[in-house]
Amino acid sequence: MSCPFKPKWERRKDARPQELLAAALDLFVERGFAATRLDDVARAAGVSKGTLYLYFSSKEELFKAVVRESIVPLIGEAESVIDLFEGSSEELFRLIMQTWWQNIGKTKLSGLPKLMMAEAGNFPELAKFYQEEVIDRGENLVRTMLRRGMARGDICQVDLEIDARILIAPMIMMMIWKHSQGVCNVEPEKLDTYLEHYIELALRSVLLKP
Length: 210
Fold this sequence. Notes:
CATH class of the largest domain: Mainly Alpha
CATH architecture of the largest domain: Orthogonal Bundle
Shape: elongated
Order of helices and strands: HHHHHHHHH
CATH topology of the largest domain: Tetracycline Repressor, domain 2
Radius of gyration: 20 Å
Strand content: under 5%
Helix content: 55-70%
Structural class: mainly alpha
């Protein structure tokens, strides 16, 4: 008769990287990059530190893997949606921003912007990596939507470089608010309302009236 409870060391080997990435994300968001130890990540994932090193050679590589396995694919999906979307610029903007908030703003991933802003000065290589993999591609998403709207004639002429950054800034700020209790005095349960107001204000500023 087989035992229904299997010990941790009998987990499927191919599940371990994902367990390590999930544990790392939790600890990075909770403690920050500098204060997170690989020992703690391994313990939270239920493996030895030696097992962790089979998959990730350093804490920096572990952090990069968290970003590449979680946020980067979501950006790729958004890029594909924009390329194939046939509706209006208003519909597209709402879809991208609401989906971004659902997939990132409402999850543990929302803690990464605050982490990077707090620790970029001490870890410039990671800051450069995050800028290239996340920020630059995020800004390009918005530039692509604006460029598409101008070509369709339903968005006014804007400065693609500056206005894309202005439109992204509130999304980043809402994620920082979410992880700054007692500082910004924004109730987490009201962030969905903030998102809707942001979308309305943003559209009002760029849409051409029929």
